DNA sequence: CCAAAAGTGTTGTGCATACACCCATGC
DNA sequence: GCATGGGTGTATGCACAACACTTTTGG
């Protein structure tokens, strides 16, 4: 439509594709923010996330992932960070791109339009969402922002969300499960110092199953991602556990060849090792 | 700027972020298309990719990844597919989202502007690129489209590309190396039937190192991703190798929980298995 | 002493590597 | 026969799961 510089030229002899209209596709950035919380009456922690109530159509009144249009002066990652700050008032322990969702019909909901649940729109807007996921350290969780249109939900007990956000969250959790096994993101759910039992609880919350404490200890020790602070937690009714710190120096040693991949070693699913 | 329905509302009490202008950020889709080819005089195959010569500023005359703005009637994946068809005339063996690149200064090149190499622009356009990567089966490579502004290059001997495309290709190759070890993408570089030696060559081209034929055979056999067709290749000056087929049925069995992840189990980097 | 969780030791299994060796074909 | 790659057998080491066992605290 406009003649902005494009990244690549359309080739002359593209006989086989019609001249598609290049009506603006708008770009949004949303963030799946995860943190550990305890459900009422339960002893173990589980994953929770904050959702924002929509104030307009479509999906007015329903819950949705926090996000918004990409400001032209922010990078995608910065936009995700601002969203997070807006929704929680906090700084993330970890922030990483999840996926860009761009199906034509993902928004608005044509099914609901047909059924008359919501009003059909003359010119349904096409939105592509670049979704990030983030973690909040457990020590900060209590300081999250309180707002009538923001509410935290357990990740496994979500209501029906706006747009395709249920699927997006599901995908985020699925990716997290895979990622936790070969990276060190688990630490980002905890504070500076933590016990092995706490770290194990993070893994168990993410993976949804119990882990052998003995073997877990050895795996973590072998990865050399933690340092013994020498301190202990006292006041428990059992042997006092040691406090560890995350070894940032080691952590960045094998994060990949280029800085570019810092927070972008995303996705993928390590299945059986082929 | 406009008041299109947005995915999430901006919250009222967002005191800490200034009202950013929402000038349109344009959205492009590019594709890193990879295929196996033989370099002049070499016996083994290596990875090649097609590039398109830019016809306008910025970076006029330089080579760039094939791509273009996202047509409003196509999904991201469809757009990547059309790009591929335009650049090669072929259908991909595999197509998957790589990453969304969205730094503010990634385009145009302010450095080159400062140095006077290219003209400064009054209103530098902000472009976010969703990049896909694709593979072309070796059997199709000879049928690729010929065009004066399209040229194939060995992936390890690229010239300086437009924008940040060198980094993008580097990242694609890095991701491919990790991915090849736990998924079955390697097959997508070959035709329907292939020998184990050919499959091994794909792995070697991607990983950049030789593999033990004996152990490679066992790994592939253990993965049960291939079926013996019973046929053999004759005419070699040695024992005739068997021909195998890719087992599609098995392949989709463990691709993840939801269809959504079909072609999107992207990124991530399986390092030491922590 | 007892309960409970921290922390250690021991053993078996499965998988990846390394490499010796045999097989089948063209020349 | 011999060269060449296809294909098999086997030993070694390591990562990991299972689980018995010891340690250290509070009550």
From TrEMBL, chains A, B:
<dbReference type="InterPro" id="IPR015797">
    <property type="entry name" value="NUDIX_hydrolase-like_dom_sf"/>
</dbReference>
<dbReference type="InterPro" id="IPR036388">
    <property type="entry name" value="WH-like_DNA-bd_sf"/>
</dbReference>
<protein>
    <submittedName>
        <fullName>NUDIX hydrolase</fullName>
    </submittedName>
</protein>
<dbReference type="Pfam" id="PF21906">
    <property type="entry name" value="WHD_NrtR"/>
</dbReference>
<dbReference type="InterPro" id="IPR036390">
    <property type="entry name" value="WH_DNA-bd_sf"/>
</dbReference>
<dbReference type="InterPro" id="IPR054105">
    <property type="entry name" value="WHD_NrtR"/>
</dbReference>
<feature type="domain" description="Nudix hydrolase">
    <location>
        <begin position="26"/>
        <end position="177"/>
    </location>
</feature>
<keyword id="KW-0378">Hydrolase</keyword>
<dbReference type="InterPro" id="IPR000086">
    <property type="entry name" value="NUDIX_hydrolase_dom"/>
</dbReference>
<dbReference type="GO" id="GO:0016787">
    <property type="term" value="F:hydrolase activity"/>
</dbReference>
<dbReference type="Pfam" id="PF00293">
    <property type="entry name" value="NUDIX"/>
</dbReference>
